[in-house]
UniProtKB/TrEMBL annotation:
GO terms for cellular component: cytosol. It comes from the Bacteria. NADP(+) binds at residues 166-168, 232. Keywords: Amino-acid biosynthesis, Histidine biosynthesis, Hydrolase, Methionine biosynthesis, Multifunctional enzyme, NADP, One-carbon metabolism, Oxidoreductase, Purine biosynthesis. Pathway: One-carbon metabolism; tetrahydrofolate interconversion. This is Bifunctional protein FolD. Residues 140-277 form the Tetrahydrofolate dehydrogenase/cyclohydrolase NAD(P)-binding domain.
Length: 290
């Protein structure tokens, strides 16, 4: 069997068109340029690389990116104040705080002080809670991009057995919720999971966001399964995922490549969320989000 490679590029192309059209609506109705602000505290290389990728995505759809920077030794007060100012700024429609923050700044500061209507990665208790309640919300862009990929390639979710590996607040856990809202039967695995291969071998779909290169090997997936890989790891100077593509490809029906799979879609979903946030802000409610 030759596995289908679920590339992100065609979804990115489609999302660009969609986002350009909805950005025009926001521009007209808000009378302002749609703007995504990214806040970088310090100079973590992964955060800087992510910001550059976001910058390219905003340019690709013709909306504005406002980079905001704080020094690595910024205090909690300064961070909170900056987040609150961005929340009040009518010229900013979405705010993303780049992770990881320096060690002395807990991520909870961001979760608690970011305006829910500008929370384009769905990290505030309001948006996370709404997602888990099945209410309209701004959804974390990485797992939403994974769902967009599955939908684009026509992979059925209803009634399917899905194993999600990794339970972070930005990928694994919200992905598990999104899949269960789509009527999949979800098993959420993590480091303490006792027998991961037993679970993955029983799954129709394996989604992995663990930050562990090669974690999902071919022998762990059932013949004909679908593998969705959110991993971004640097090994010997190369970007690799959490699945071992060489051994997965001969067994799987389909898999997302790394690079070129879930990653590029994430950034466009973030931009889409920025426009959705801007339109929701005009209405003053998250209730009518798509
Ligand atoms: P991300 O932000 O990409 O989701 P995190 O580092 O925040 O990454 O979370 C990694 C998640 O993956 C954690 O929930 C952890 O339990 C899980 N994980 C990491 N390594 C393994 C592994 N070898 N087996 C199972 N789960 C793992």
């Amino acid at each position: 069997m030759t596995a289908q490679i679920l590339r992100g590029a065609p979804i990115v192309a489609r999302l660009r068109e969609e986002v350009r059209a909805s950005a025009a609506l926001l521009r007209r109705d808000a009378g302002r340029e749609p703007t995504l602000a990214t806040l970088l505290v310090g100079r973590h290389p992964a955060a800087e690389a992510y910001r550059r990728a976001i910058e390219r995505s905003t340019v690709s759809v013709g909306i504005a990116h406002r980079p905001v920077a704080l020094p690595a030794d910024a205090s909690a007060e300064v961070l909170v104040d900056t987040i609150e100012q961005l929340g009040l700024d009518p010229g900013v429609h979405g705010v993303l705080v780049l992770m990881p923050l320096p060690d002395h700044l807990p991520a909870s500061l961001v979760q608690e002080h970011l305006a829910p209507l500008k929370d384009v990665d769905g990290i505030t208790p309001t948006n996370a809670g709404r997602l888990h309640l099945g209410l309209p919300s701004l959804r974390p862009s990485t797992p939403q991009g994974g769902i967009d990929i599955l939908d684009f390639y026509g992979i059925e979710l209803r009634g399917r057995d899905v194993v999600v590996i990794g339970r972070s607040n930005v990928v694994g856990r919200p992905l598990a919720t999104m899949l269960s809202l789509r009527d999949a039967t979800v098993t959420l695995c993590h480091r303490q999971t006792r027998d991961l291969p037993r679970l993955t071998r029983a799954a129709d779909i394996v989604a992995v966001a663990a930050g562990d290169p090669g974690l999902v090997a071919g022998e762990m997936v059932r013949a004909g399964a679908v593998v969705i890989d959110f991993g971004v790891n640097v090994v010997d100077g190369k970007i690799v995922g959490d699945a071992d593509a060489a051994s997965v490809a001969p067994r799987a029906a389909a898999y997302t490549p790394v690079p070129g799979g879930t990653g590029p879609v994430t950034n466009l979903v973030l931009v889409r969320n920025t426009i959705a946030a801007g339109l929701a802000a005009l209405e003053g409610t998250l209730d009518r989000l798509p």
